[in-house]
Model the fold of this input.
Amino acid sequence: MVMTLPFEVGVVVRDVRPMERFYCEVIGCRVERRSRVPESIGGPAGLGGELLVVWLRVPSGGCVKLILPRSDQASVPVSAYAPPLSAGRPGLAYLTFHLDDLDPVVAALRAAGARPLSDPVVVLAHGRRISFWADPEGNVVELVDARGGNPGPGRSN
Done:
């Protein structure tokens, strides 16, 4: 099997605007397109009715899709039907972005009032500097400084 396009991940959101600003202004993604997705596609995935999807291209080629359900369920607070987000729960743990320089992104996150999850903010793992943050909706984001060299077979950090 050969992958024909870079990896994509979909993140269900409550409010597209702050999420788009976070991933574009801080992480460096760019909006590739926006579209409405019919219920016939979102429904089988458990996403309710029609969806608004914003495709954010990651500088390295991957894609983060911000998915806003347009059904009544979208107006229900997340806490009413889901536990708080945590990297320790089953399912998606975190999004990892490999960066050529971690420091300017950490500075931008601090300036934007983002919440660091690492203590200290930047830690050393397998010879690379990494940092964990929460995006505006509490999803865990891992930032990896690519200048640390090759972490070894089967490891991304």
